From TrEMBL:
InterPro entries tied to this protein: Aldolase_TIM, TAL/FSA, Transaldolase_3B, Transaldolase_3B/F6P_aldolase, Transaldolase_AS, TSA/FSA_arc/bac
Location of the active site: K87
Localization per record: Cytoplasm
Protein name: Probable transaldolase
Keywords: Cytoplasm, Pentose shunt, Schiff base, Transferase
Reaction(s) catalysed by this chain's protein: D-sedoheptulose 7-phosphate + D-glyceraldehyde 3-phosphate = D-erythrose 4-phosphate + beta-D-fructose 6-phosphate
Protein EC: 2.2.1.2
MF GO annotations: aldehyde-lyase activity; transaldolase activity
Pfam families membership: TAL_FSA
Family, similarity comment: Belongs to the transaldolase family. Type 3B subfamily.
Record's function text: Transaldolase is important for the balance of metabolites in the pentose-phosphate pathway.
Source species taxonomy: Bacteria, Pseudomonadati, Thermodesulfobacteriota, Syntrophobacteria, Syntrophobacterales
Keyword Cytoplasm carried by entry: yes
Pathway(s) it belongs to: Carbohydrate degradation; pentose phosphate pathway; D-glyceraldehyde 3-phosphate and beta-D-fructose 6-phosphate from D-ribose 5-phosphate and D-xylulose 5-phosphate (non-oxidative stage): step 2/3
Length: 219
């Protein structure tokens, strides 16, 4: 299973990278805005910096809404760095753009996926990745991970190459279930990556070992 970090914050990306478990990065317009990036040039420079930090797929989102404009934008984004994957929203125009971008060899991550049939369409159109948003489904009292289970099931029936990125991850349980279901990737906020590392029994165990070691050293 691959771990991506879901952030545009360079410090968080560096910290997760230092753990040795980071395979890629996903960003979105909200995460970019959160970093105080004020214009398109700043956005491009920021994506470049992320690509320098992580030698893996880095998702940068297209914000156009019609397919021709999305394609033009995707070409620009893909030219930033060979690791850039263009995030395309799961809309009619988005789907059209994905199949044309696949023909050009531009990698795509179909985002804002909330149903298994949307995921099926994205795979048929040639998406490199599909991102079901589990946390946002949980927020409206639907079970987000049920969607992932259905997508894993459908993709395995047809041997699609599209990889599933479990997105909108809010807690360690999402990651655990994603791994048990065999999802290819989870894109995880830094806070949740940190939660995955920690266990209270590890902390208690460490404290006791260190205290007992003081006896060995005669303190
Ligand atoms: C995924 O690629 C998205 O950037 C992200 O997971 C959305 O998460 P949110 O629902 O917490 O905003």
């Amino acid at each position: 299973m691959k771990f991506f970090i879901d952030t545009a914050n360079l410090k968080e990306i560096e910290a997760a990278h230092a753990l040795g478990v980071l395979d890629g990065v996903t960003t979105n317009p909200s995460l970019i805005a959160k970093e105080g990036i004020a214009d398109r040039r700043g956005f491009v420079e920021h994506i470049k910096k992320i690509c320098e930090l992580v030698q893996g797929p880095v998702s940068a989102e297209a914000v156009s809404t019609d397919s021709d404009a999305m394609i033009a934008e995707a070409r620009e984004l893909a030219a930033i760095d060979p690791h850039v994957v263009v995030k395309i929203p799961m809309t009619t125009d988005g789907l059209k753009a994905v199949s044309r971008l696949a023909d050009e060899g531009i990698k795509t991550n179909v985002t804002l996926v909330f149903s298994p049939l949307q995921a099926l369409l994205a795979a048929k159109a040639g998406a490199t990745y599909v991102s079901p948003f589990v946390g946002r489904l949980d927020d409206i009292a639907a079970t987000g991970m049920d969607l992932v289970a259905q997508i894993v099931d459908i993709y395995s029936n047809y041997l699609f190459e599209t990889e599933i990125i479990v997105a909108s991850v809010r807690n360690p349980l999402h990651v655990l279930e994603a791994a048990r279901m065999g999802a290819d990737i989870a894109t995880i906020p830094y806070k949740v990556i940190d939660q995955l590392v920690r266990h209270p029994l590890t902390d208690i165990g460490m404290e006791k070992f260190l205290k007992d070691w003081e006896k060995v050293e005669g303190k």
